[in-house]
Amino acid sequence: MIHPNMSTSVHMKGATLITPSDPTPTHILHLSALDSQLFLRFTVEYLLAYKPSRGLDKPTTTARLKAALARALVPYYPLAGRVRTRSDGSGLEVVCRAQGAVFIEATSECTSSEFDDQRAPSYCNQWRKLLSLQVDDVLSGAPPLVVQLTWLSDGAATLGVGFSHCMCDGIGSGEFLNSFAELASGTKRGVNELKPAPIWARHLMDPSPLGIPCLNSASHPEFKKVPDTCGFLSRFTQERLTPTSVTFDRKCLNELKKSATHTGRLSESLSCTSFEVLSAHIWRSWAKSINLPSKQVVKLLFSINIRNRVKPSLPSGYYGNAFVLGCAEICVKDLIEKGLGHATELVKRAKERVDDGYVREVVDSVSSARACPDSVGVLILSQWSRLGLDRVDFGMGRPVQVGPVCSDRYCILSPVYDQRDAVKVNLAVPTSAVHQYVHLLKNNYS
């Protein structure tokens, strides 16, 4: 059953400011250079959908989640603070005074059938009111964490969660949500049992005091501007975007790997991961379907976890932004004509470039020169399927769907319920390109 007017059928019952259940430090914490990047000053919004549970008492469950959130905010107390710019303008900081996170209660006439894992939303903002407090400016004194529990008419529920990206990355937010859920479900009785224990330590991602290296645009193409030969950005502002959702199971991913091996220099000894080949396939399908000029340079940007790439490794429980952007770059003509194998090699090489030295160059450059990724010709891809979001169980079972609150031109790879090796590709594309994009994604594996 489809509810095209879902946005009007969500009713707010109330919003509460949830403060830490125990006293927490009152002080100011500096965010790192990676945290303070200009392009991270927005809110990441997750939507988790849960099936109806027999005998589940809604008021009791709601109270349990509120209490668990208050307890989780003790070790994660910066999430109850407020973000602002440092007085010298050098970056961001968090004022920690236990100001609190927002918890919203809501109901909806919709049912769990709305969240069929094989179907995209009807339009980009269809689920907007499932996280009704939309924080556009994270530096305006707004809470860095917003949680909304919405009860559906058949006893199912959704949990919308908004995190200020400058506070934590995907891995960090996934760890917080699992800790929050373990406290709510009773799996963990005390915050001292939480694993991993959260660690601030943002100074580990501060710039070097020894000087600022000059960024090599060949080594860091993510920051290099490319000519716009086609009014690229206007395609995504002047034409309506339509959400798409396509699932790749293990069989499909293995077929992609075989095709990449046959169309490039990849071999059994130089194998590719599912992420590398799938992201290359999405990139090619997207570029071809939106009909970009053959000479337009396009980039695929994707996050690379650096926790174990820097030396020494970041400590377990570090929940700040610990990623840099991998960048594969090529002109449209070569991306399409040289085949899936070549595109997969580009993604693989972009990952292999990232080591401790590469990360330190990025840290220094975003701190000093405010280096920021360009938007022309860019497809941004984010891998939510490895964040542990599919394990977040508040006592209502595991979520049957995990994805973004709103669809956008950023591609999200999300987990698929009860299919461990499957991935769902979520991407909004210009409406005129939808049918070709979906066709290419489902059929063109060469």
Give the distance, in angstroms, between the N- and C-terminal Cα atoms.
Answer: 36 Å
SSE series? EEEHEEEEEHHEHHEEHHHEEEEH
Strand order of the largest sheet: 1-6-7-8-3-13
* Estimated radius of gyration: 22 Å
| Global geometry | globular
The residue ranges in which pLDDT falls below 50 over 5 or more consecutive positions are 1-5
Counting helices, strands and paired strands, the structural category is alpha+beta
Q: What top-tier CATH class of the largest domain fits best? A: Alpha Beta
**Helix percent band:** 10-25%
CATH architecture assignment of the largest domain? 2-Layer Sandwich
Our count of domains comes out at 2
The major sheet is characterized as: 6 strands, mixed
Report strand %.
15-25%
* Number of helical regions: 9
Keywords:
446 residues, alpha+beta, Chloramphenicol Acetyltransferase, 6-stranded mixed sheet, 9 helices, 15 strands, 24% helix, globular, disordered N terminus, Plant_acyltransferase, CAT-like_dom_sf, Omega-hydroxypalmitate O-feruloyl transferase
Q: Any overview of this molecule?
A:
The chain has 446 residues and is of the alpha+beta class. It has helices at 58-72, 170-185, 235-238, 250-262, 274-289, 332-337, 339-352, 356-368, 434-443; strands spanning 10-18, 27-30, 43-50, 82-85, 92-96, 101-108, 145-151, 157-164, 241-248, 297-305, 323-331, 378-383, 401-404, 411-416, 419-430. It contains 9 helices and 15 strands. The protein folds into 2 domains: 6-205, Chloramphenicol acetyltransferase-like domain (Chloramphenicol Acetyltransferase, 2-Layer Sandwich), CATH 3.30.559; 221-443, Chloramphenicol Acetyltransferase (2-Layer Sandwich). 24% of the residues lie in helices and 24% in strands. Residues 1-5 have low confidence and may be disordered. Helix 4 (250-262) packs across helix 5 (274-289) and helix 5 packs antiparallel against helix 9 (434-443). The radius of gyration is 22 Å and the shape is globular. A 6-stranded mixed β-sheet has the order 1-6-7-8-3-13, covered by helices on one side. A hairpin with a 5-residue loop joins strand 7 and strand 8 (157-164). The longest helix is centred in the middle third of the chain and has 16 residues, at 170-185. InterPro entries: CAT-like_dom_sf, Plant_acyltransferase. Belongs to the plant acyltransferase family. This is Omega-hydroxypalmitate O-feruloyl transferase.
